[in-house]
Amino acid sequence: MNGSLHENSQKTYDGPLTASNSMLSCINLYYLASSSKIAHMHRSLSEDVKEKPKVLQRVVQDPRAVHTIRRSAKSLAECVTLSGHFELGPAKANTSYISVIMCIQHPFSRGNIVSHDYYPPHPLSPPAIDPRYLSKQIDQSILVESVKFVDKIAKAETLAAMLVARQDPSADIKSDEGITKWIKGNIRTLHRPIGTAATVHKSLGRVVDKKLKVYGTNNLVIPTHLTSHLQRTMYGIAEKAADIIKSDWGRYERHGCAMVGGRQDGCLAIPSVLRTPNSSAKRDTEGSIRTLKHT
């Protein structure tokens, strides 16, 4: 942290470090809950996954799989702060707000997505989606502990002096049962659903094979959630898919940057060049290569 910025923010309450949007953290379960509560979550999860889906059974039961809840270094929740009032109850007039959003990084609940019952079925008809949020007890427990974690943050000396009261859920909701009821009435998506066409073994209901070839649909998704936002991961999958497609077609050649005299002298504006079967190195598709010279 920049020492001068920190010192200035404490004196003037101004500057980049005073913006609530600068606070974001991914938190592992051992910061949220006690060891006894975590043990109870383990047991409830083991009981819940005795039923379908098989993918979730493997994640939880196979010691070689990524079993995130038993690895203290992995985060299961994300804490995001926002300036202002965030959508839940109505905002009060002439009142300043700071909102804290707690998100589950590895939800264990599983829903379903099916085509509408049209006949004949139409491939462009919107599907029916049932996310079944909180259908696994562990997801409820993690969010309950997350709400209580936010309360701890709010009571910290540096923040408590600036806050008047918690608005949502209301300050009189303190029991786990009351918090759970409030969560069920206010939970929402972060618009990053995955898993509709999992890349797993065929015996577990495979839809996408190891070459990302999908049977009966165009979707490419990830079977279990990641401890991060998905954008960079999806870029990586897209790059892999592009390499597979080019390899299968056998008509593409990957180019990098042009190196002259041990230094980068220019680079290709288009990374992939399509060649016709009988073309020579000098016969590229029109406009395929543009070399940018540094001046």
Automatic annotation (TrEMBL):
Names of required cofactors: FAD
The keyword Iron-sulfur is assigned to this record: no
Domain named Glucose-methanol-choline oxidoreductase C-terminal: residues: 107-238
Domain of life: Eukaryota
GO molecular-function term, one example from the UniProt record: oxidoreductase activity, acting on CH-OH group of donors
Pfam families documented for this protein: GMC_oxred_C
KW Methyltransferase (keyword) present: no
Record's keyword terms, sorted: FAD, Flavoprotein, Oxidoreductase, Signal
Family: Belongs to the GMC oxidoreductase family.
Name of the molecule in the record: GMC oxidoreductase domain-containing protein
Organism: Thanatephorus cucumeris (strain AG1-IA)
